[in-house]
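Supplementary notes (optional reading)

For those who missed the lab, this is the record we used. Protein: Bacterioferritin-associated ferredoxin. Length: 63 residues.
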Amino acid sequence: MWVCLCEQINDEALADSYAQGLKTVKQLKQAKHLGSTCGKCIRLAKQKLDQLDSSFIQVNLLT
């Protein structure tokens, strides 16, 4: 699924960026230019980052 169509960032690329340490919308804006064209993706990107945070926390609790 596309998160930011303007900058060609899909949810897989967002997950890869998260794994590389880009864990906030601000960091994604700086590094990947997320939301720099129209900004419609910011809300969806925040939701996806929250989901990744939740998944990360659950995995850490299980190990």
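If you only remember one thing from this example: Helices lie at 11-19, 25-32, 42-62.
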